[in-house]
Write a structure and sequence with these properties.
flat, about 180 residues
Amino acid sequence: ELLTAVLTVIGSWGLAFFFLIAGASTFLALRWRTAMEYVRERMLRLAVPLAVGWALLGPVQLWLEEHHHHTSNDSLAAVTLRYLSDPFTPPPNVVNYSYALWFLVFLLEYSLLGLPVFVWLRHRQGQRLLTRLGRLGSRRGGVLLRFLPGAGGTPPCARDLPTGEDRPGPFVSLLACFVLG
């Protein structure tokens, strides 16, 4: 029961926290890289492992899943051919059967979708906004303003979006956490 309580508390903010850290890392990485260098680095560090993991691990996972649920008696080779013939799915999870690699899919998408915001923050208007927020944050209790957008759980832009697997609500919520980072 204690472990369930701890996991419930961590589960409600843990994933958002990881994307918040990833967004902060992106902002810092863009201090020393151009946008194109950043995209190239993200492709090497995220897209390549995602493609390799998807191609090598995915067919085995699908085969095991189908045999476990008794939905197919196909051989591993037949499942692999079917798996590789249909690699894409509608957004937000654009890679079909990503299984545990969904985190890489989302992180890659967030890195590319958030890039224009981070590049804008490096320019004069963005720096002005960051300076104002810095002044607010330096006041007593001001650091808590950073957490205000996420205090209600789902950001306002995602509240009315459908939730659940392959729905835009969680995707937009975690993207907001990434950009807030």
